[in-house]
Design a protein that fits this description.
It is a single chain. The chain is an all-alpha fold and 315 residues long. It contains 12 helices and no strands. The longest helix has 33 residues. The model has no long low-confidence stretch (mean pLDDT 80).
Length: 315
C-alpha cells in the first residue's frame, strides 16, 4: 500500500509540473506533457530512464511516419489508421512497447492539425521532453530514501516473525498443538517471497552492493522458513515427547530466540546441539520419536549455521 502511494505521489507531482511548464511555454496540447510523465514513471530509475530515451528515438520515427502518411492521404481516419499501423509495428520491432501510447496521443494531435509543420514537430518534441524529464527527476528524488525505509520495514517484520515462530514452537512442545505454527510459517513464507520481489525491483533503485545484500538476506531467510516447515512436519509424526527432550529443545530454542532478538552470532550453540543429539539416545525408549527429534535438531543446527552466515551481511 505504501509503495503504491509513493508511486501515485510521484506521478501526480510529475504530471503537475509537466503541464505547468508546458503551459508556461505556451505549448499546444499542454496536458499531453502530463500524460507523458504518467506513462514514463515506472518502479525503477533505470527503466524510467530507458523508457524516456526510447520515447525520443520513437518520436523521430513517428514524426517521419506522420509526414509520409499525411502526404499520401488527407482523409483523417484513414491517415490515423495507417499512422498507428506503422508506429505499432516499428515499436514492436525495436522492442519499444512502452512508447506506443504516447505516440498514439501524438497521432490524435496530428488529426486536428492541418499539416505536419516544423512548429508542430517542435511543439510535440517539447511535450515529450518535458514529461519525460519530470518523470526522471521524480524517480531520482523520491525512491532512494523511501525504498530503503521499505526494506528496513521488511527486515524488522521478518526478524520479529522468526522470534514469534520459535515461541510457537515452544508452545507446541508444551501442548503438542502446531495448528497456529503452520499458519504463521505460511504467512512468513508468503511475506518473504513478496519481499524478494521488492528486492528485485530495488536492484535498479539502490546501489548494487546494498541490493545484493538485501537479496541474499531474503534468500537465506526463505531457506530458514523451509527448515521450520520441515520441523513442523516432523512434529506431526511424533507420538510422544519425554520431559527431558522437551527441556533440551526448549532451552536451545530460547537461546536461538535470544540471539535473534539481540542480533548475536550463535557460535556457542554448536557444542550445545551436539550434547542434545547424544542425550536423545541415552535412553532407547520411543526410538522412532527420538529419531524424528534428531532430525528436528539437525534442522535447528542448519538454521543456526545459516544465521551465522546471515550475520555477515549488514543489510
Amino acid at each position: 500500500m505504501k509503495k503504491d502511494m509513493i508511486k501515485a505521489l510521484k506521478i501526480a507531482v510529475a504530471c503537475c509540473f509537466s503541464i505547468m511548464i508546458a503551459e508556461l511555454c505556451q505549448l499546444d496540447f499542454s496536458a499531453s506533457a502530463g500524460i507523458t510523465a504518467l506513462l514514463t514513471i515506472t518502479d525503477s530509475r533505470k527503466k524510467t530512464l530507458t523508457l524516456a530515451i526510447q520515447r525520443l528515438f520513437s518520436f523521430c520515427v513517428s514524426i517521419a511516419v506522420a509526414i509520409l502518411v499525411f502526404q499520401a492521404t488527407q482523409i483523417h481516419w484513414i491517415t490515423f489508421s495507417i499512422y498507428i499501423f506503422f508506429v505499432v509495428w516499428i515499436s514492436y520491432y525495436f522492442q519499444w512497447h512502452g512508447t506506443i501510447s504516447v505516440n498514439a496521443v501524438m497521432g490524435t494531435h496530428i488529426l486536428f492539425s492541418p499539416e505536419v509543420t516544423s512548429a508542430f514537430i517542435v511543439n510535440e518534441f517539447y511535450l515529450i521532453f518535458i514529461g519525460s524529464t519530470f518523470a526522471i527527476i521524480m524517480n531520482m528524488i523520491i525512491p532512494k530514501r523511501t525504498y530503503r525505509e521499505l526494506i528496513n520495514e521488511d527486515i524488522n517484520y521478518i526478524e520479529s516473525s522468526f522470534i514469534s515462530l520459535f515461541q510457537h514452537i515452544n508452545t507446541y512442545l508444551l501442548n503438542q498443538d502446531n495448528t497456529t505454527l503452520d499458519v504463521c510459517i505460511q504467512k512468513l513464507e508468503d511475506y518473504i517471497e513478496s519481499a524478494i520481489q521488492t528486492a528485485i525491483e530495488n536492484n535498479e533503485n539502490i546501489n548494487q552492493e546494498e541490493s545484493r545484500k538485501y537479496v541474499h538476506y531474503c534468500d537465506i531467510r526463505l531457506e530458514q522458513v523451509y527448515l521450520l516447515e520441515n520441523i513442523s512436519f516432523k512434529f506431526k509424526q511424533i507420538k510422544n515427547l519425554c520431559e527431558i527432550d522437551i527441556i533440551n529443545l526448549t532451552y536451545l530454542i530460547n537461546e536461538i530466540i535470544d540471539d535473534l532478538a539481540s542480533q548475536k552470532k550463535p557460535h556457542h550453540h554448536k557444542n550445545q546441539i551436539q550434547l542434545i543429539k547424544q542425550c536423545f539416545f541415552n535412553n532407547m525408549d520411543n526410538i522412532e520419536d527420538k529419531a524424528i527429534l534428531y532430525g528436528v535438531v539437525l534442522d535447528l543446527e542448519e538454521f543456526v549455521e545459516k544465521q551465522i552466515v546471515l550475520m555477515q551481511y549488514n543489510v
